[in-house]
Specification:
Elements (H helix, E strand, L loop, with lengths): L1 E6 L5 H9 L5 E8 L8 E6 L3 H17 L3 E7 L1 E3 L4 E9 L2 H18 L2 E7 L2 E5 L3 H8 L7
Parallel strand pairs: 1-4
Antiparallel strand pairs: 2-6, 3-5, 3-7, 4-6, 7-8
Length: about 150
């Protein structure tokens, strides 16, 4: 089971957990990302390329399912304007055992940060600026390119 959603509406964690648990696995690992108020950010706005974004997220989910033999992968990502404390992303990996679920969950969030076409704009007071990808995001994603031991 793969579920991908790019949406403006708030993420319903309870509904997504119900979806994840319905996959019938022994383990569900999740990650929820929140908008940070770094350096006075008042609004974070995400734009995306409809169709291309969902396709990129689907590819990430399919890669996780294949690599860890998951029973499910969920990626829900917000777009539009958001404020500090709001949920921006939710990922879940369901597997027979916790190790695979935990590794796959980390993979999902690491890869979507670099593989999906999202553009971020932060507003601080009256000033808005586009945000470049962080070097740490690329380093986290690249670690998954190494062959498994």
């Amino acid at each position: 089971m793969i579920h991908i959603s790019v949406q403006q509406s708030p993420i319903d964690i309870a509904a997504e957990m119900t979806r994840a648990e319905a996959a019938g696995a022994g383990a569900v690992a999740t990650f929820t990302g929140l908008v940070r108020a770094d350096d006075g950010v008042g609004t974070l706005e995400l734009e995306h390329y409809p169709g291309a974004t969902e396709a990129a997220l689907l590819k990430v989910a399919e890669g996780a399912i294949e690599r860890w033999q998951l029973s499910g992968a969920i990626i829900v990502h917000r777009v539009g304007p958001m404020h500090p404390g709001e949920r921006i992303v939710f990922v879940a990996a369901t597997a027979a055992h916790r190790g695979a679920a935990l590794e796959a969950c980390a993979y999902l969030i690491d890869r979507l940060k670099t593989d999906a076409p999202f553009w971020k704009r932060e507003t601080r007071g009256a000033t808005a600026s586009w945000v470049e990808a962080r070097d740490g995001d690329h380093a986290a994603a690249v670690r998954w390119d190494k062959p498994e031991a």
